[in-house]
Design a protein that fits this description.
The structure holds two protein chains of two kinds. Chain A is mostly helical. Chain A is rod-shaped. Chain A contains two helices and no strands. Helices cover about 75% and strands about 0% of the residues of chain A. In chain B, about 75% of the residues lie in helices and about 0% in strands. Chain B has eight helices and no strands. In chain B, about 40% of the residues are buried. Classes of the chains: A mainly alpha, B mainly alpha. Chains A and B meet through helix 2 of A and helix 2, helix 3, helix 7 and helix 8 of B.
């Protein structure tokens, strides 16, 4: 085990800002992108029904 | 209809098949990421020279690999769509671009956050970093170009030209650390030499790479399905699908 405590884990040997700054942005984008893609597919089905704007 | 090489170039068949595959890619991505992160943080030892900050490698290298791989995938399908007048291939090429751009951004972002504590700077105009930044501009340029042209097939063709010409940048990124003196370190993993890191570090990095790969499949297929629906609005099968999906208002 690398970490003596939870605080130790979050501190990342003093590099917490860099390590968690990397992982947080990665997690954010890799959560948002699938949600946007799924919403785009649902919207395409809705647009078909309402005769809404068909994107090219 | 017999199953042939062309069977899944039919949009409705592609739509059905990809819809069945997406949940499996998600399952694989989440499982591999879970094991990869556990290994990366709890099994892989502290790096002797860099300390804990090296743990950025478990997302930095997979994101950078995916940024280059996805560009080649995008250029390949764009070229197939152009050369063989295959609409679905062009749609897939368009679906790859945002995911590739996102991984390119992540490679640059995590690289900056790794560079600051180890090199003392967020950014340096060396060959590896500059060529990766150009990759981001190529993705964004491709997206802007295909969205700017109203006729979808003309947009596909213009995009394909840009994508194929831009593909020359990918080997430049890959070999930049060999061809020029860069602040960026050399390849961590190569076919011709043994890995320059502990085996648990390497395993965690490869697991995360496979997780990102499965993620890319899941997201690109989802976006491809959206684009297929958008482009096939006028066809009967989309109408039936919209009605059957219970989204009628």
């Amino acid at each position: 085990m690398n970490w003596a405590s939870t605080g130790d884990f979050f501190a990342m040997g003093g590099y917490g800002l860099y390590v968690w700054g990397s992982y947080a942005v990665t997690a954010l984008l890799m959560t948002a992108e699938p949600l946007l893609a799924a919403r785009r597919r649902r919207q395409a089905l809705l647009d078909h029904d309402t005769g809404g704007p068909a994107r090219p | 209809m017999p199953l042939t090489f062309y069977t899944f170039s039919s949009p409705p068949r592609f739509y059905a098949l990809s819809g069945a595959l997406v949940p499996w890619f998600w399952a694989v991505a989440l499982a591999l990421a879970g094991v990869g992160l556990w290994m990366g943080f709890f099994v892989a030892p502290t790096d002797a020279t860099q300390g804990e900050v090296y743990r950025i490698i478990f997302i930095h290298v997979p994101a950078a690999w995916m940024s280059m791989l996805l560009y080649l995938v995008m250029a390949f399908w764009a070229a197939v769509g152009w050369a063989f007048n295959a609409r679905l291939a062009s749609m897939v090429a368009r679906a790859v671009a945002p995911t590739g751009a996102m991984f390119t951004f992540l490679a640059l972002w995590t690289g900056a956050l790794w560079g600051k504590p180890t090199w003392g700077t967020w950014w340096v105009w060396d060959a590896r970093l500059t060529s990766e930044l150009i990759l981001l501009f190529l993705y964004l340029g491709y997206i802007a170009l295909v969205e700017a042209i109203d006729d979808p097939r003309r947009a596909d063709q213009a995009g394909a030209l840009l994508a194929v010409v831009g593909a020359v940048n990918v080997p430049i990124i890959y070999f930049s650390v060999k061809w020029w003196n860069t602040l960026h370190q050399g390849a961590s993993v190569s076919i011709t030499s043994s890995p320059k890191m502990a085996s648990t570090m390497l395993t965690a990095m490869l697991l995360m790479s496979l997780a990102f790969w499965a993620y890319a499949f899941a997201v690109v297929l989802t976006r491809s399905r959206a684009i297929v629906l958008e482009r096939e609005q006028a066809s009967a099968w989309v109408g039936e699908l919209a009605a059957a999906d219970g989204v009628t208002q």
